[in-house]
Amino acid sequence: MSKAPASSAPDGASSQGVAAVMAMSMVERSGRTARTTAAPLRAMPRAQPQVVHLGTTLVRDTRRLYHSRGARVVRRLSTKLGWMLGAARRVVRALRLGLIGLSWVVVAALVVVSAFHLGHREPWIFMVALIAVTPSIYMLAWATTSIGLFFHRRALTVLSIVLVVLQLWWVVPDFDPISHLASPVPGEVQFRLFDANVSQSNRNLTEIAGEIRRDKPQVVTMEELTPVSLRSLQFTHVMDDYRYHLVRAATGSYGMALWSVYPLADAIEWYAEGHPELRAWLELPGGGHLRLDVLHTTAPYGSGEPGVWARQMAAIRSELAHEPRPLIAVGDLNATWYDWHFQALLGLGLRDAAVVAGQGWRMTWPRDQQPVVPYLRIDHVLLSKGVSLQSYAVGGGKGSDHHPLLVRLGVR
Fold first, then answer.
1. Is 292 in contact with 219 (CB distance < 8 Å)?
2. Are strands 387-394 and 256-260 parallel, antiparallel or unpaired?
3. CA-CA distance, 121 to 341, in Å (whole number)?
């Protein structure tokens, strides 16, 4: 009975010890937890100087890069590129204004030329020359039309279009490519005619004589035939078969000649304001007659020459207006299709053989100024009613500054 109390005391003490041990374990665990939780809080203040140092280094490296040689080169290139782009814009602006201004100058000049053309006025050599090259000079109006449309300049575009219309009005009839050659008709007389301005400076007509021998025309006419060139032609004997002739060789541009296998009636030399011209009746087989005029004018250049040329053309028109028909007029008139003097001749009821053949674009002068190609058609064959054109060709004319003409005609 006395042992029971002794055993109970140690059990109480042991339970207290266990409780004490458990309490100490819990304190240790909470301490470790607190240290573990507090560790990052103590590390954060140490990381802040590293971030600041990193930012400082980045700024310093950026400044070094900005002030480095490569960066300076890049900045200089960028500056130059900007200046070049600005200069390019200024150049483009200047070119645009220059093109528009130049276009207005061209249009104004063409308007003046058109006014003289429409007014039948050619008082100066440069005006005669500008009108003579109408197909070429008015191509500038096409360019100014394009410039006006591109830069949206309404007035410039409208005036340019008007000039283009005028060019087409003048040029299209001359450059008509459609041939209107006639077919031979039974009962009509057919013959070939060869006309050449042999050039007053040409002393050797051997090549032209060769063309005559090859083509075998029944009628031959020449302008600017000098005594020297006539002797050269006679030496070839090519003209021996032409029994009928009217030859007036002379120095300068005044030499004229007519040869024919057909008899000539009333063959005379007449003058258009001082320049000699030839006229005759061709007595054709079967009793037919054909009036033939061989024509030439002074070239419209030099002091006062445009006025002389204009008076000669007026005199020729007056003569042809009273000539009996049927009629053919051939020669070097020093006038193009676009000269109003030439149009006045067509107004007499005459037809231009080149246009009838659809070859108005075949130029005859100059033929000896290579590399310049012929750009004027001043040698003509004009036909009245009753004379049909069956062929038209432009010859070689070596030795002269003109291409000769060869036509085959029919007379009813």
1. yes
2. unpaired
3. 10
In this structure, what token pair is assigned to residue 321?
Answer: 């207006």
Alpha-helical segments (H) within 322-369: 340-346, 353-356
Q: What is the pLDDT of residues 239-287, one digit of tens each?
A: 999 999 999 999 999 999 999 999 999 999 999 999 999 999 999 998 8
- Tokens 């039974």 -> residue: 186
Give me 131's structure tokens. Answer: 């009108």
Contact of 354 with 362, CB cutoff 8 Å = yes
User: Which pair of structure tokens corresponds to residue 255?
Assistant: 């030499």
**Alpha-helical runs (H) found in 216-273:** 227-236
Beta strands in 210-345 (DSSP E): 219-223, 244-248, 256-260, 264-272, 275-283, 289-296, 327-332
Q: In what order do the strands lie in the sheet with 256-260?
A: 244-248, 256-260, 219-223, 189-197, 405-411, 387-394
How many CB atoms sit inside 10 A of residue 117's CB? 20
16 burial class (0-12, 13-18, 19+ CB within 10 angstroms)?
exposed
Q: Given the structure tokens 């005199």, which residue do they identify?
A: 315
Q: Each residue of 180-234: pLDDT tens digit?
A: 999 999 889 999 999 999 999 999 999 999 999 999 999 999 999 999 999 999 9
What is this structure's pTM? 0.78
Q: Angle 185-190-194 (CA atoms, 0-180°, nearest 5)?
A: 140
Contacts of 299 (CB under 8 A, 6+ apart): 253, 305, 309, 334
Indicate the length of the chain as a whole number. Answer: 412
**Secondary structure class of 216 (helix, strand, coil):** coil
